[in-house]
Amino acid sequence: MEFNPSNIVIKLCLQGMDMEEKGKPEEASKLFLQAWNEATDDFEKFTAAHYVARHQKNIPDKLRWHETTLQFALKINNDAVKSAFASLYLNIAKCYEDLNDVDNAKRNYELAASFADKPSDKGPFYHGTKANLQIGDLLTAGRMSNYHPHVIMNHIYFTALVNGAGFAAALAKGDGHEHVYIVEPTGSFENDPNVTDKKFPGNPTRSYRTKAPMKIVGEVTDWMRQTPEELQKFREKLANNKGEIIN
Fold first, then answer.
1. In terms of CATH, what superfamily is 125-240?
2. Does pTM top 0.70 for this prediction?
3. At what angle do helices 42-53 and 25-38 cross, to 10 degrees?
4. Given 1.10.645.10, 3.40.50.300, 1.25.40.10, 1.10.10.60, which CATH number is that of 8-114?
């Protein structure tokens, strides 16, 4: 399934994270468990189990929930969750280490290292902007961030989700029309570290970045638009965000 912030399980997890930030772990734990109980598909269960795991009070229970999260990730095994494998195996390895199970700890540390590589996503990829560009044009790094004033970006950011690119276009600076371009990377790229394994496990928004130019090969005109109210709420959230961007 495509990542959807309006999904009820995702909303419950967001509420739980809000409780964590407010220093209310018991309320957070209840919301994450509710998310698990209301999850109906593998992606929802994978997401909810990830948060239930970190609120377990003893190592065996924590290990059980981390392994449950991994089982659903392996069932899904797509580009939205593959980038979570390294951290999932690392969490499991740490549990085994705490339990003095040296062999299983070593095996899972090795598995974690084996997944710490470049993304496997084959696209197609999209870039949202208000700039009026042409097929064949090259996008290059060195532009001002849409989200952090005065920050010059060292990378070009893009996504494999057309709706995500449309959202980025709506938030982009400028007075022009929103455009979602189909793009091709001309060099290597990596998971966007600003989203990968941050709020949600893995890279559910399939967001990437590259220092190499991105070639525009087409344009799409059909994507899900947010309401002005939804966009304003997100802009206010960005304005209040004091976190540092990984540039």
1. Rifampin ADP-ribosyltransferase domain (3.20.170.40)
2. yes
3. 160
4. 1.25.40.10
Query: For residue 241, what are the contacts with CB-CB under 8 A and spacing of at least 6?
Result: none
Tokens encoding 151 = 């920050």
State both tokens at 36.
């698990």
Torsion angle in degrees (nearest 10) through CA of 131, 244, 53, 164:
0
Question: Tokens in use for 228?
Answer: 């002005």
Domain boundaries, the chain: 8-114, 125-240
The yes-or-no answer to whether 8-114 and 125-240 have a common fold is no
> Has residue 100 got a pLDDT over 60?
yes
| Cβ neighbours, 10 Å, residue 21 | 9
Q: Can you say whether the dihedral through the CA atoms of 157, 199, 232, 239 is positive or negative?
A: negative
Q: What pLDDT is recorded for position 171?
A: 81
CA 23 to each of CA 26, 95, 219: distance values in angstroms, whole numbers, following the listed order: 9, 24, 45
Pairing, β 125-129 against β 214-220: unpaired
Whether 52 contacts 36, CB under 8 Å: yes
Give me the mean pLDDT over the 24-39 stretch. Answer: 97
Query: Residue 161 pLDDT > 80, yes or no?
Result: yes
